[in-house]
Amino acid sequence: MLPNPTLDQLQVFLTVAESGSFSAASRTLNRAQSVISYTIANLEAQLEVPLFERSGSRQPTLTDAGRAMLEDARRILSDLGVMRARVKGLKAGLEAEVAVAISVMVPTNATVDVLSEFRDRFPLVSLRLDTGELGTMMELVASGKSTIGIGGAVPNQDDSLVIERIGHSFMLPVASPNHPLAQIERPLTLTDVRDEVQLVVTDASGLTSGKDFNVLSYKIWHVSDIATKHQLMRGGLGWGGLPASLIVEDLQKGRLVRLALDAYDQSEYPIYAVHKLDNPRGPAAAWMIEAFGERLSKCPNKADFKAAVDMFHPDEKQLAAE
């Protein structure tokens, strides 16, 4: 017959081992010492191995089997504590899981900061994170696959969604420093860029189908995600727009250069928090939205961003031109 120790037996075993004696365990658990001894004896009978060496010492000493079982007892009782805490949180309205969809337009440092604090503040709440381009965030929320979404590009008003502006971002036209457009020492025109390959992200969600955002070239390479676009542009394979928050280090270190292209819309655009009207936010999701709002409200505007980059390249003509 397989051993079937009770949680109470394991708790008594752990208390005796940690307190160092049966008498100390009886005081800690507020039970008679005889009850403690009886419980340990029953546990040893269940496991069919001695847990304590009682002969030759006034204090019980763990046997080799006892030391091995001690780690198992700690783990089981720790898991029980986690379960109890989770049930307490659920009864108080805390979510078991928050599924969040975050647009690549959201600054990476803000995402890392928020999720790091989320982990510490809500250790018992599971997290499912999806990232995507353009309309992917909206599609994940609208379909119910994500509890909340953080990002821009709200292509259509949807009465089933609650949309709240919490920050801003902006795109910059850039290219590798060895790209032909980066060699032109004057503001660029549409004629300059028409015959150069422009890298464009294709929205897998289909929500923005038929809509072009800042597509100016006749030669277009479509890529599936912004990370691929970023790497291809650093490799000199084309030009295009990238979120300012993603490329600040590239600009500072000269891996990319900003193109002085007035035809490319570089205006700031809003970042939203989105959730379904019929799926109210729980405490953890509500906190996450507030935390993103706090950090995104502190994101630099275009003037601050340009000053930060110019500090590294004060003589760069592309950076100075507007």
Automatic annotation (TrEMBL):
| Protein's UniProt keywords contain Ubl conjugation | no
Gene3D superfamilies reported in the protein's UniProt record = 3.40.190.290, Winged helix-like DNA-binding domain superfamily/Winged helix DNA-binding domain
- Enumerate the InterPro entries for this protein: LysR_HTH_N, LysR_subst-bd, WH-like_DNA-bd_sf, WH_DNA-bd_sf
Keywords from the UniProt entry:
DNA-binding, Transcription, Transcription regulation
Q: Pfam families annotated for this entry?
A: HTH_1, LysR_substrate
In terms of SUPFAM superfamilies, this protein maps to:
Periplasmic binding protein-like II, Winged helix' DNA-binding domain
Spell out the PROSITE patterns in the cross-references: HTH_LYSR
List, for all copies, the residue spans of the domain called HTH lysR-type: 5-61
| An MF annotation (GO) of this entry | transcription cis-regulatory region binding
Please give the PANTHER family that the UniProt record associates with this protein: HTH-TYPE TRANSCRIPTIONAL REGULATOR, LYSR FAMILY TRANSCRIPTIONAL REGULATOR
Give the protein's function.
Transcriptional regulator of the ttuABCDE tartrate utilization operon.
What family does the database annotate? Belongs to the LysR transcriptional regulatory family.
What is the name listed in the Swiss-Prot or TrEMBL entry for this protein? Answer: HTH-type transcriptional regulator TtuA
What organism does this protein naturally occur in? Rhizobium leucaenae
